[in-house]
Amino acid sequence: KQEVTQIPAALSVPEGENLVLNCSFTDSAIYNLQWFRQDPGKGLTSLLLIQSSQREQTSGRLNASLDKSSGRSTLYIAASQPGDSATYLCAVNNAGNMLTFGGGTRLMVKP
Amino acid sequence: GAVVSQHPSWVICKSGTSVKIECRSLDFQATTMFWYRQFPKQSLMLMATSNEGSKATYEQGVEKDKFLINHASLTLSTLTVTSAHPEDSSFYICSAREQSPYGYTFGSGTRLTVV
Question: Shortest CB distance from B108 goes to which of A42, A91, A98?
Answer without folding.
Answer: A42
